[in-house]
Structure formats: structure tokens, C-alpha cells
Design goal:
With 92 residues, the protein is mainly α. The chain has one domain.
Length: 92
């Protein structure tokens, strides 16, 4: 069995009672603690925000490197070909 990392970074927030009750009801439906539910939801939203970035700031050197990678010939990627030839779950 793999050891779980120790959670020791505190995150504290204040909420209205109705917000806390709403979160508690949703957490209960998913059989999770309030903390686990909130942390999972917050991390999921944080990932979405980061993945939806449309503007990236790069230094001149990093921009040149980026352009070189984008302009380079595409390498054969068997794993990517397999992935793209597989139906998505909603297409099955």
C-alpha cells in the first residue's frame, strides 16, 4: 500500500451559513468531508482556470524557443496516433 502524503498546508475561509450548508449537503451526497469536497472542487476549478489561459507571456528567448518547436517537423508519435484513433467515451 502506498503512503498518503501528509496534508499540512492550512487553507482557511469564512462563509455564510447558507453557503456552508449547501457545501455540506453536496459533500454528504458524495460521501466526503466538507474539507475534502471543498479542496477537490477548488483544485478542479484551479486546473480549469490554468488550462483555459489564452495569453502566455514569454521572454524573447523563450518566444524564440517556442517558435522553433512550433516550426520543427512533426515527429512520429505512435501513442498520439493511437489516442486520436480511439473513440471518446461519449462517441461509444
Amino acid at each position: 500500500m502506498q503512503e498518503q502524503p501528509i496534508k499540512n498546508a492550512a487553507i482557511n475561509i469564512r462563509a455564510l451559513p447558507m453557503q456552508r450548508n449547501l457545501i455540506d449537503r453536496a459533500a454528504q451526497l458524495q460521501h466526503k468531508s466538507r474539507s475534502d469536497f471543498m479542496l477537490e472542487a477548488a483544485c478542479q476549478e484551479a486546473e480549469n482556470v490554468l488550462l483555459n489561459q489564452r495569453l502566455f507571456s514569454l521572454s524573447d528567448n523563450d518566444y524564440d524557443t517556442f517558435l522553433a518547436v512550433m516550426d520543427a517537423p512533426v515527429k512520429d508519435n505512435i501513442a498520439l496516433k493511437e489516442l486520436l484513433s480511439t473513440l471518446s467515451p461519449w462517441e461509444k
